[in-house]
Every structure is written in structure tokens, then in C-alpha cells.
Amino acid sequence: MASKIVSFTLNGRETEVMVKPLTTLQTVLREGLDQTATKTGCKQGGCGSCTVLLNGEPVLSCLLPAEDVAGQNVTTLEGITPVEGLHPLQAAFFDNFAVQCGYCSPGMIMVSKALLDRNPNPSREEIVHALTGNLCRCTGYEPIIKAVEDAAERLKGAHNGR
Ligand code: FES
Ligand code: FES
Question: Which of 69, 78, 94, 141 is paired with 13 by a 20 to 30 Å CA distance?
Fold first, then answer.
């Protein structure tokens, strides 16, 4: 099968990339578009380190053929990181020691962003449920849960002009 051009919106920009059949979105992002915040872990759907947002919802980019995102909106960690400073989720992860080796962090943050976008007041149980598919070998998870709770407060403060 021949390669083809896939057009989609990546982090708010119209993007075109030549894709071989069955190449994953993860590979295209990292190797074709130099968007390396999206990590390569198990490549089998089991760790969550490759999570990006597709139309605002978390997806595992290691399982998603790049052709399937044609015409859709993809957001990676690069897309939510301000030119200067940090997104409130990034700052909360940093301040709560939720980033140790950092390998899981982009996936954790993207899942958390989707959660807070649809539910600005998640309970602890809802946070744990949202993060269920994302593995972390370093933190024991508690700092990550606290970071998401903290980020929810920061985002509420930002919306209230605090
Ligand atoms: S690399 Fe995609 S789930 Fe592990
Ligand atoms: S901080 Fe190392 S895997 Fe989560």
C-alpha cells in the first residue's frame, strides 16, 4: 500500500504529513513532526505514556493509526504548554513532586486536562478513575492525585480572576 498525505489540526495548527499505512500517531508525532513530549512506553496500550487528546478526549497514540486522525484535532503536551511558564497542571505536578523521572508525566497531564475540562470539580475517586490506565513507576501515585486536585483549585482561581 502506498503512503498518503494526512491532514489534521495539531495543537491548533493545520498540519500535513506523509504517512505509511498503519503507522501509529505516536510514531508520526515523535518521528515525523518532532513532537517528543508524547512518550513511547509499552506500545501495546498498557501504560498510557503515549496519551494525547483527540477532539479533547484522551486516546492512546500507540494504538491509533495516523490515517484515522485526518480532519480531526490532536493536542499534545506541547500544545498546552505556554510559550513562557507552565500550564497550571504542569505547575501543580512540579510543586507536588508528581514528576520524578517524568516519563509518565505527559500522559498523566493530558488525561488530567481532559478530566478537568469536562469536570472542573472532580472527586478524588473521579481523579483515580481517570488515571487508571496510566502507569507510574516512581511516585506511588499519591503525589499525582494531589497534583490534579491542586490544579483544579488553581484553574478555578484563574477563572475567578484570583
Ligand atoms: S506506549 Fe501507548 S499505552 Fe504504552
Ligand atoms: S515519574 Fe517516573 S514513571 Fe512516573
Answer: 94
